[in-house]
């Protein structure tokens, strides 16, 4: 159902051409605007949904294909000779605007878009060159942009002639595989701004269908050519595809589109083409646009769990699910999937515990439905370690924390306090598990060897419990850590398989040890004799408990000098040693701890950056949103003190705003759901106005005395948030 030769599948196109011709005959004046009317599709055969199962292929990575896998290149047919230049076209447009005679422009558009050959004749940089490489599409991008920019400002009959030509191109008989000229035409047609109009969606859908059905080798070319498109045009293409998917899911005017049952292939085709642009974006560092620009927030309003279960049940079958293309699902939607998946696992495990108890004729106890952690404040780490190790089977139950010797029910506050205190103690430099790097403001795993790595497993389990129980942690790991945490995203069955090992680069090292990374970069760019000037070998040294130890990066590395020829290998091995090999046992324990709680196929949906946001929250602050969602106790939002407070806070620098958030909540980052999920509260403190503000971080609560003026409030607030560290003044 994907070949062009089957014309009966595109009967709608013939109807559409007839409609256009009829409307053209009824137009007396070329300049009179006419709204295109697209007839409903009838008898269109369903396209088997296009699936890319992320279990087998988590990310679409496009690499150069080996020669033997490349499809044979069919001979390119001879192109017509077209000599019009950008300047000639612009002159024609200006003359048409001043004279009102659009004939020359109309002829150009109708001829150029009449077939794939004509598109290449007009826009190919050199009609005599094949342009069969990834590096150069051969498209005159400037000419394409100028022609498309002018198109929407031309009379309606000119625009219709373009659409008619596009239809002609899509209806052409196919004989043999696609040529590179055909791929060029697809690449150019995708950029047509007319496809932003819902009246053209029938044509757009068939264009997307044909592109989605191309071979993998052809997709490789489109991906590499797409990464050369300017950022502005690239973003427009992505937005157009996202809008197409959104309006097909939730049409503003359903009568504009064919019935969903007649075009089930629309959304899979568009999503597959969007995947090509996502692959192109990921090939470039830095990417052309942010990965968040591929999010489709419309999907937040569909039945996400049905999508997730379809993906789990049908995998790589022909049943389409958005979960096969996780780049399109927003982090908020992924959080919902993970939370509901966690809740279902919690309920399932709690139910099983209840059934086991009843089957043994024992009296059920409500405590058996929870992961109950009892700890002494004086032995916080050891007690937590013992509790989590002893109750490993209960890790997926709802967490409840009790501090021994203290009265109080855990309604969420004690759990958060337990996380805060435990993280603070474990990451303290004196504890020795993690090293804090001041230059990068982040922690990294200590490479010191020890007999027991169970405490690293505890930290991993803590992170997993935080995600599982929707707690935001104040942890400062570099992005590389989350990349390793998803390597692989599902714990392998074979325990001999290495975990937490990923490809690392000098950029990853820069995020942890910028000074060392800068030195290695200087080594790579050194123009002199590396062997004589640096006098280094494939051996590195590390200090462990006051003792300097040496490690060979290669067998007999101490005897292999670093030279101009092998310095790249040296740098890569050194980075791999620092970020993978030297901390393997520590990170493996951390990895297994995290996945002991968060073992879920939902992790396959996540990028490393998204795992970080789920664990630590987002760094983007919106204090106006916080103001709108703040609750008050003892104050009204119209009270003078509250008005002073928000005047001061909204005028703070970003650094002070982060300090305020950290002071009040224990973290300067925002949960995935935004400020509304913080449940931030300002309470009236009946103490003297000489006192500083006080915060209860376990409840995200700020206690504010009724200061008499804005100056006093600002002074006291800055002193409080700038000098407070944890649960007391520095």
Automatic annotation (TrEMBL):
PROSITE patterns: HECT. GO terms for biological process: protein polyubiquitination. Keywords: Ligase, Phosphoprotein, Transferase, Ubl conjugation pathway. Residues 391-730 form the HECT domain. One of its GO terms (molecular function) is ligase activity. Its EC number is 2.3.2.26. The keyword Methyltransferase does not apply. Pathway: Protein modification; protein ubiquitination. It catalyses: S-ubiquitinyl-[E2 ubiquitin-conjugating enzyme]-L-cysteine + [acceptor protein]-L-lysine = [E2 ubiquitin-conjugating enzyme]-L-cysteine + N(6)-ubiquitinyl-[acceptor protein]-L-lysine. E3 ubiquitin-protein ligase which accepts ubiquitin from an E2 ubiquitin-conjugating enzyme in the form of a thioester and then directly transfers the ubiquitin to targeted substrates. This is Probable E3 ubiquitin-protein ligase HECTD2. It comes from Chloroceryle aenea. The gene is Hectd2.
């Amino acid at each position: 159902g994907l070949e062009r030769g089957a014309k009966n599948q595109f009967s709608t196109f013939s109807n559409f051409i007839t409609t256009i011709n009829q409307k053209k005959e009824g137009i007396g004046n070329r300049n009179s605007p006419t709204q295109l009317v697209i007839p409903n599709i009838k008898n269109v055969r369903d396209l088997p949904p296009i699936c890319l199962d992320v279990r087998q292929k988590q990310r679409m990575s496009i690499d150069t294909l080996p020669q033997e896998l490349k499809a044979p290149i069919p001979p390119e047919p001879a192109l017509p000779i077209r000599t019009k230049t950008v300047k000639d076209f612009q002159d024609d447009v200006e003359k048409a605007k001043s004279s009102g005679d659009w004939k020359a422009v109309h002829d150009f558009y109708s001829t150029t878009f009449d077939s794939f050959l004509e598109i290449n004749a007009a826009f190919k940089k050199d009609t005599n060159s094949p342009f069969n490489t990834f590096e150069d599409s051969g498209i005159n991008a400037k000419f394409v942009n100028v022609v498309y920019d002018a198109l929407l400002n031309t009379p309606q009959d000119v625009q219709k002639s373009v659409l008619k030509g596009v239809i002609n191109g899509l209806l052409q008989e196919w004989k043999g595989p696609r040529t590179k000229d055909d791929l060029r035409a697809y690449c150019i047609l995708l950029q047509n701004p007319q496809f932003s109009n819902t009246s053209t969606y029938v044509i757009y859908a068939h264009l997307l269908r044909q592109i989605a059905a191309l071979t993998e080798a052809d997709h490789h070319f489109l991906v590499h050519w797409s990464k050369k498109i300017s950022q502005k045009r690239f973003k427009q293409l992505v937005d157009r595809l996202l809008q197409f998917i959104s309006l097909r899911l939730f049409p503003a005017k359903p009568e504009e589109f064919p019935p969903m049952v007649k075009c089930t292939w629309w959304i899979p085709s568009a999503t597959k083409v969007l995947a090509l642009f996502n692959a192109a974006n990921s090939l470039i560092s830095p990417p052309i646009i942010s990965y968040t620009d591929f999010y489709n927030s419309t999907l937040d309003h569909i039945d996400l769990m049905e999508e997730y279960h379809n993906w789990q049940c049908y995998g790589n079958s022909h049943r389409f699910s958005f979960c096969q293309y996780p780049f399109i699902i927003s982090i908020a939607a992924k959080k919902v999937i993970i939370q509901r998946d966690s809740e279902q696992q919690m309920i399932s495990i709690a139910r099983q515990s209840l059934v086991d108890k009843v089957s043994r004729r024992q009296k059920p106890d409500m405590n058996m439905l929870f992961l109950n952690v009892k700890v002494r404040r004086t032995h916080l780490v050891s007690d937590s370690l013992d509790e989590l190790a002893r109750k490993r089977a209960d890790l997926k139950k709802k967490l409840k924390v009790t501090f021994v010797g203290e009265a109080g029910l855990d309604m969420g506050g004690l759990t958060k306090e337990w996380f805060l205190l435990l993280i603070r103690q474990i990451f303290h430099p004196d504890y020795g598990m993690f090293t804090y790097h001041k230059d990068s403001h982040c922690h990294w795993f200590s490479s010191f060897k020890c007999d027991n790595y169970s405490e690293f497993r505890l930290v991993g389990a803590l992170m997993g419990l935080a995600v599982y129980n929707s707690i935001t942690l104040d942890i400062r790991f570099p992005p590389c850590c989350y990349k390793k945490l998803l390597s692989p995203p599902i714990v392998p069955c074979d325990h001999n398989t290495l975990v937490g090992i990923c490809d690392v680069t000098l950029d990853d090292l820069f995020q942890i040890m910028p000074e060392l990374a800068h030195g290695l970069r200087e080594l790579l760019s050194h123009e002199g004799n590396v062997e004589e000037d640096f006098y280094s070998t494939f051996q590195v040294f590390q200090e462990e408990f006051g003792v300097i130890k040496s490690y060979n990066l290669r067998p007999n590395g101490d005897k292999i000098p670093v030279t101009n020829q092998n310095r790249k290998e040296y740098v890569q091995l050194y980075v791999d040693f620092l970020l993978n090999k030297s901390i393997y046992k520590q990170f493996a324990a951390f990895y297994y701890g995290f996945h002991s709680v968060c073992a879920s196929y939902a992790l396959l949906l996540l990028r490393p950056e998204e795992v970080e946001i789920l664990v630590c929250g987002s760094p983007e602050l919106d204090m106006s949103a916080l103001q709108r969602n703040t609750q008050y106790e003892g104050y009204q939002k119209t009270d003078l003190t509250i008005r002073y407070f928000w005047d001061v806070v909204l005028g703070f620098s970003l650094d002070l705003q982060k300090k305020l958030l950290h002071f009040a909540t224990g973290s300067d980052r925002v949960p995935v759901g935004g400020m509304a999920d913080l449940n931030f509260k300002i309470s009236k403190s009946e103490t003297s106005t000489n006192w500083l503000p006080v915060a209860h971080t376990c409840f995200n609560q700020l206690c504010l005395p009724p200061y008499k003026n804005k100056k006093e409030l600002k002074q006291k607030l800055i002193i409080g948030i700038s000098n407070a560290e944890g649960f007391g003044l520095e």
